[in-house]
Amino acid sequence: MTANSQVSQEPLQREDFTQTPEKAWEEHPANPFNLPRRRKWRLTLTAASVTLLVGLNATAIATPARSIAHDFHISEDSFPNSFWPITVWNTGAALGPMIGLPLLENFGNRKGYLLCYVAFVILVVPQAVARNFATLLVIRAIAGTLGGILQNTMEMFVADIWLTDKERDLPVTLYTLVLLAGVTLGPVFGAIAKELSWRWVFYVQLIIYCSLVPLLLLTIQETRGAVLLSRWASKDHRLSRAAAGTTKPSLPTLLYEAIVRPAYLLCSEPVVFFLTLWSSFCFGLVFISTQSIAQVYAINYGFSDAASGLTQSALFIGEVIGFFAYLPQNKYYQQSASKNPVEAGSPVPEARLPLSIPASLLGLTGGLFWYGWSSYPHIHWILPIVGLALIGFGIMVIVNTVDLYITDAYAKYAGSAIAAVAFGENIFAAWLPLAANSMYTVLGFQWASSLLGFVGLCLTFAPIGLLFKGESVRRRSKFITKASYT
Fold first, then answer.
1. Can you give the pTM of this predicted structure?
2. Rounded mean pLDDT of the chain?
């Protein structure tokens, strides 16, 4: 007999009559927050693996781009048409989660997640065997839509099983790392698989994705509390009243939460707008690098497409350093609870920001200037790589800071605010790199990177302003005041 059946068949104790339905669910073994810690980490790490591997599909195609253009007779003379497969993938990734995630939130995430994964894997096949460029673009757009849902669902899993912000800090930071690492390592993966042919870039992905299916079937479980509560209500009378208090939203409500509210936050809340701009610029830089690195290293140092793709790993090294550097920042945030004059015992959202300022000034901005002004043929090729590592460090810290700060500040509406940020990141990643080739050709390697560095410098004023005035900004925001749980 299982533990769950024992719970439902035990005679009622006296305390069961006085126990509130909410309390009964809080202590119930089916509540996702009550999962054993080992199972929580197993689910988190499995979702992290999917997030990373899905990201490879987004950018692995960047390395063999010229081979694809040659096979499909695509001209690169006046426009970087070979980047369109990445653009349509990211556009799909921007739009897909806005509809897909609310459906998974309200109707259960396990079946939807697994179905999206299976469909995503199947779509790798037509990418590998595409006979014309139009077919490739259409399939890539659909794959990006599914990929965006898969990547963003990891954050849903984290929120569903890790109860406190202290518990969530490390899983969310890991999520940021694997999200960035996937799209960063795509060109590296493409450089290795391209040696067979560009179609093998997809065949190898297909092998990897298929091998992951048994792990997903065993590890991914339903984590939506409301969905599980409704299932258990018929088995455990103590939960029936708690389930009666939960209702699934109507279709208009779902659309409002998925589209209208994120758009409203993005347009009306300065905090969401400027932090989205800052994070989106950083995310877009990862995709700009797929263009600029190939250009800089081919012209200055005669690197092949494959060698240029491998150079992208410098960004990943910087991101890993940023991951470990952020762990003490998470501790500092938790310690700020003892110094909160407004809500005693609650950490201060602005305590998320200190590391992001030097990461933006020295890592992102400094790295862009270093990368640009060391990009000369007479300077050793390792020096621009140091600049790329600095950029990767800055990107990791900034994207993670924005994610966590938005979650803290907007509390009840964190999902909508994060949806606005994710939309901006994918739109920048889709369209900003289309200008990279022309920019680096017209301005030169040095001034093109410097222009990006100046943009990064200007955006650094967003966290500086919030660090000193964040509490008053939050107090004046009617939306943040409504979003508070207190």
1. 0.90
2. 87
